Amino acid sequence: MTIARTRSIALAAILAAATIGLLSQPAAAQEKVWKHGLLNAKADAGIFLMVSTRDFAAKQGLKLEISQFKDDQIALKALIAGELDSFEGGPQGVFAADSKGADAKILGCHWIVVPHGIYAKQNIAKIADLKGKSIAVSAPNSMPDMLARSALAKFGVSDTDVKLAAIGSDHDRYQALIGGIVDAAVVSNEYQPVSPKNIHLLVAGRDAVPNFLRVCIVSTAKRLAERGDDAVKFLTAEMNALRFALSNRDATVALTREIIHAKPDDPRPAFVYDDAIEHKAVDPTLPLPAEKIQWIQEQMVKSGKLPKPLDIKIVTAPDYREKALNLVGK
Asked: What is the largest CA-CA distance in the chain?
């Protein structure tokens, strides 16, 4: 056998051994992709997207792929289709989907106080003044739609006494309001510090619908059965990220400015952050408040959007949150 032939065999053996070594490495040492969806970034982006920074996910062995969506319903459809592992949105979509045979599961909720409100023209001083007027909301069963209906009912105004116009995103609804296309709109409080003088907050969502949950993290029973351990890791990363965000104002506001390309004098990122802290709107433990989840379901049944109540146990999966809390504690 020639020297060249011997060297070739030796090199092949070394490469084979190296390949076997790589393949035999523990799976935990390799990052797994977790596909997560949320609504389009706004002035609260620093809180929502903190989990994508500072290796919060990488420390749990996950690589995050985040997709942004115009509304909850589109994200929920992507989840059910298997295009996402989880997404953040209102629990009402889960009830609607599961009543039709889907297997969506609420894992925990972090934005537990709705920051939205009904903003209106100056000549509308109270909810009763909305009779005969148009209100910009979003798709049926979406948070803006339910907030408007619930707020109207609380003040004795039927949703048949107004015109509810489904108009895309917060930005779209805000533009419709200041452009005079509608008389009122359900929009995020991020527009409050920049609204013209003829637009005012008619009623804050936290006052009109204190039981409303803004955002919950949702997955499916199928995905949890396949990747339950990874779901726990993702929730752990989210909890750690939220704790950091709520304790580090400057870093969180700066991240928001970077994500939405806000100018230095834009007051919205700081306003939204301070409002969330003041009203304890965000809970990093990702609770599953049964009374609030049940209240949302009751409103859907009353409005005819849900044929009958579902067992809360069908739409929630608390075990993954409990495991994540243990990891965070350690």
From this structure: 98
